[in-house]
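Okay, any thoughts on this one?
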Amino acid sequence: MKERFVTVSLSVKPGLHVLRYVSAADMKHPPRVLVQRKPGAGEGLELLFSPGVVDGALTGFEDMAVISASREGELLVTTLSGPLSISTDVELKLDPIGKLTGVQPASQDSDATQAMPGFPGSRYLQLAGHVQRLGDTLQHETGWLGAASGRARLEAFAASWIDSIKGVRLHYGCEIEGRGRQTARVPGDLVGTRGQSAAITGVFFELKGSQAGAWEFVATAAFAGCLPRTATGSRIELSGPTGGEPLVGLKIDVRPATAQAQPSAAPSETIPPLPERGRVRIFRATDRVKR
């Protein structure tokens, strides 16, 4: 079974909280749960994980993340299923364990509502992937998955909606050295390989659907030994100068199409849209459920 991930946004009020991994639909092969600050949410959230947690990934039941919030903010909680997992559905529990004093929550004009600096509108797409020698990881707050410069290969990646757009469907994939093209079946599918010394030498993304012409990607890909390359449009492809350089970093988002953009003709749609989200249930102390 192909690997998938699902991302949900979790709002956190000022104070101290603990987020626990309680259970999963697939108890035999439970997915990993990655916890990070939402890109562009500004400062004010700090994360501390229980012993044994690496790179913010909760892998076992009762693994936990302690959240210190000096003001109201948002986290991204991502469930990443393995090749043997049958479901990305998990249950988490969020409990307050204290409250900071003398702290004012963020206003509507605070950094929490602004886009990530230098990456316009970065609020629609979320990246996860596998970096050589680093392992599974989410994109950094700068928007990069991997690095803009470096030697560690970005061996696999997946893209998923944070905020899906009505009438727009996401398609993407990559070119793998010696193996050809690999295309994700649904958003959240991992494309590429892990630890097989098979470099990604190109990436491609396309928006489809009745409203696809109103939106465009803004993407930058870094390939080893050369400057990062940027592309915009509803259908894009990126590779290095010779087509053989390995991918080391990627950042991408969706924004309203600019007036100068020439939108790609919308392909005919013969396949109905597939479900793009699993279920992540987060129980708060008040017994309210956030999906």
Remarks:
- The radius of gyration is 19 Å.
- The first strand starts at residue 5 and ends at 12.
- The chain has two domains: 5-101+108-114+276-285, 125-256.
